[in-house]
Amino acid sequence: MIEEVKSLRANGGLKWGYYDEDVLPAWVAEMDFGLAPAISDALHDAVTRGLTGYPYPAAEEKVAVAATRFWADRFGWSIDPAWVFPAPDVIEGGVRAIRHLTRPGSPVVLHSPVYFPFYGMVERAGRDVIEVRCPADDSGRFSLDLPGIEAGLAAGAGSVVLCNPWNPTGRVLDETELGDLVEVVRRHDARLITDEIHSPIVYSGNAHTPAARLDSELVVTVASASKAWNLPGLKCAQVVLTNEEDRSRWSAYFTPEKVGVGTFGLIANAAAYASSVDWFDETLARLESNRDLFVDLVAEHLPEAVCHPPQGTYLGWIDLTRYELGNPTAYMLDTARVALTSGTPFGGEAGQFARFNFGTDPSLIAEMLERMGKAVRER
After folding, report:
1. Strands (DSSP E) along the chain, which ranges?
2. What pTM does this model have?
3. What CATH number has the domain bearing residue 25?
4. 126: domain CATH number?
5. Residue 12 reports pLDDT greater than 90
């Protein structure tokens, strides 16, 4: 484990470079599995060829073709590559969708706890948030509060932003749940904007359903290869518009100088979707094994915690309420020297929750949870 830590820390970056050297990081959503060879090759080739200029249509088309083929193979979702538009990242894609494709000035429903940059996304779009706090059962399994979402729409919201797979809860909504949400949104003549960035990372017994497959007119989909292939620093996402009017409005406004996507991001996303699926499948198997280890170790070392096994993502959502730690993430950082993501900014009543990134070496998962268990036992 020591050599693994030295190697990861030597690489630098946000995850391993932010905290002191005695802290093990399980916070920001980056994996520790390196880069797929085909992506590395594509980026090296781009540097050799001097492709450091502006993004260009052929690169954008290559991403669209590769992404749609991947989605068709993976999810049974067959769409025209011409319906795929580039954006710098998923959050910016969401900002643009809210601004340009929903009723002017209308509030936005967020289902909390939810990926906390959504709150800033809505603010940047110039809208108000209607937060709907979603319930969990005794096992820690979260579900959408459909009556609450409907009430938000009835109060004037023009859209719902959905995170599926659901960061931070790890839920993967099944087709029935998703269909029920689509029906609620449809009844209020609103829009559903779906962040499906984690969609490839789904574990055995679960399946991702693209919301736009259920209603192509109502849904705007935003996706990227950045989570499944660990590319968030390369600034590239896909906004999928399955509604003809949306495509017309988007194309008229987002002329090339307004797109803001990165050339290297386009190159990397194309290589991910087209040439790195085998690498990803191996990584997914590692993640599923890590997920199982994580769940077992939480039960062993934090028996009073509540944590539903994640169905997707590489993020565990741990309810530490019963330990009465005050600020659980601050306590674990100070006492266990483990960096977690605080539940507070995810909204709802998540102050006693912590998000744990298990996209790393199993030995590090074990060490972190052993430290956390010791920290609560020796209070």
Report:
1. 24-25, 84-87, 108-112, 129-133, 159-163, 191-195, 219-223, 237-241, 315-319, 338-339, 341-342, 353-357
2. 0.96
3. 3.90.1150.10
4. 3.40.640.10
5. no
